From TrEMBL:
<dbReference type="Pfam" id="PF20256">
    <property type="entry name" value="MoCoBD_2"/>
</dbReference>
<dbReference type="Pfam" id="PF02738">
    <property type="entry name" value="MoCoBD_1"/>
</dbReference>
<dbReference type="GO" id="GO:0016491">
    <property type="term" value="F:oxidoreductase activity"/>
</dbReference>
<feature type="domain" description="Aldehyde oxidase/xanthine dehydrogenase second molybdopterin binding">
    <location>
        <begin position="274"/>
        <end position="335"/>
    </location>
</feature>
<dbReference type="InterPro" id="IPR008274">
    <property type="entry name" value="AldOxase/xan_DH_MoCoBD1"/>
</dbReference>
<protein>
    <submittedName>
        <fullName>Carbon monoxide dehydrogenase</fullName>
    </submittedName>
</protein>
<dbReference type="GO" id="GO:0005506">
    <property type="term" value="F:iron ion binding"/>
</dbReference>
<keyword id="KW-0500">Molybdenum</keyword>
<dbReference type="InterPro" id="IPR016208">
    <property type="entry name" value="Ald_Oxase/xanthine_DH-like"/>
</dbReference>
<dbReference type="InterPro" id="IPR046867">
    <property type="entry name" value="AldOxase/xan_DH_MoCoBD2"/>
</dbReference>
<feature type="domain" description="Aldehyde oxidase/xanthine dehydrogenase first molybdopterin binding">
    <location>
        <begin position="4"/>
        <end position="246"/>
    </location>
</feature>
<dbReference type="InterPro" id="IPR037165">
    <property type="entry name" value="AldOxase/xan_DH_Mopterin-bd_sf"/>
</dbReference>
Length: 336
């Protein structure tokens, strides 16, 4: 046990039950099950993190240049920790050098450098090495999921059961990210009954936080892989299974059993266009030809996936728009 206040190293458990999942599985023609791992990874942007902090001797304020994705979030955190008003602090995000989510947060180095700059009344700088980045900057993913789908004879999915263990690392900065996996569990499919449990646990590893979609790509990976397994189990085309289970356009706005409210969507139309552009029918024919030819030098793999993603969480930022006498417009915004 890593922390006395966290029995069994569990930070929290997020659950969602809607519909009668037990009945869906009891009445299923087939139950498709799979354990899926979404491995831990490091963001590895082209440039690691770097910070410059300079005190303002006149105002008593502080200017911080940091290669971050959330300057307003960082300003608020700096003000809280340093006991300053937010309007005393200016955070500037120059060229970030790649972020991918791991540069959203405030890290100890930003806070410490700003505090030291104020204490010594000197501008100070710090740049992260690649090894420091691998060990200290937040990682992503790090989940293991056990999934079951209840399937009828025609390929209709009537129930989802999902158990996820999300590795938060030792000192997580965003411990709710695995919940997003649960909230997006059904993807683009009209699955009427769900039984979802997401357990967020502490481990003695680098913290896990946002990376390229932050919990939502994991959900897309799980449900799309499961739909492919349904297609294989039922001897159906993966496209046919998806079309049979899409949320219909006339059902929007659609409240999913996992929680989110989808405002609109025409998933069949989008998929049909993708199949047309890619020449899907021809690719399937070529795939069968290669499979039938024992002398074929290579085989042809074809993957199909559909997804939807909720976004726009914040942090909420401010902007200034100036219309100059010349007719030009100048926009100041915190977006990096």
């Amino acid at each position: 046990q890593l922390f006395d206040s966290m029995p069994n190293n569990i930070d929290h458990v997020w659950t969602r039950k809607r519909g009668d999942a037990d009945a869906a599985f009891a009445g299923a023609h087939r139950v498709v099950s799979q354990r899926i791992a979404s491995q831990r990874l490091s963001g590895v942007p082209m440039e690691a993190r770097a910070v410059v902090a300079a005190p303002d001797p006149i105002s008593g304020g502080l200017t911080v240049w940091t290669s971050c994705q959330g300057p307003h979030l960082n300003r608020g955190n700096l003000a809280t920790v340093l006991g300053m008003d937010e309007n005393q602090i200016r955070v500037i995000a120059p060229d970030v050098g790649g972020g991918f989510g791991v540069k959203i947060y405030s890290y100890p180095e930003e806070i410490l450098l700003a505090a030291l700059a104020r204490a010594y009344r000197l501008p100070l700088r710090w740049a992260e090495t690649r090894m420091e980045h691998m060990a200290g900057t937040a990682h992503g993913r790090a989940q293991v999921a056990d999934l079951d789908l209840a399937v009828q004879e025609d390929g209709t999915i009537t129930g989802l059961r999902m158990r996820v263990v999300g590795d938060l690392g030792a000192y997580p900065v965003d411990p709710v990210i695995p919940e997003l996996t649960g909230q997006m569990a059904v993807g683009v499919y009209a699955i009427p009954a769900v039984d979802i449990e997401v357990t967020c646990v502490y481990t003695n590893t680098t913290p896990v936080a946002a990376y390229r979609g932050a919990g939502r790509p994991e959900a897309a990976y799980y449900i799309e892989r499961m739909v492919d397994l349904v297609a294989r189990e039922m001897n159906m085309d993966p496209v046919e299974v998806r079309r049979k289970n899409f949320i219909a356009p006339d059902k929007f706005p659609y409240k999913t059993p996992a929680g989110p409210l989808y405002d609109s969507g025409e998933y069949d139309k989008a998929l049909s266009r993708a199949l047309e552009i890619s020449g899907y029918a021809g690719l399937r024919a070529e795939q069968q030809q290669r499979l039938a030819d024992p002398n074929a030098p290579t085989l042809l793999g074809i993957g199909v996936a559909c997804y939807v993603e909720m976004c726009g969480f914040g942090p909420y930022e401010s902007a200034v728009v100036r219309v100059e006498p010349t007719g030009t417009v100048t926009v100041f915004t915190g977006i990096s």
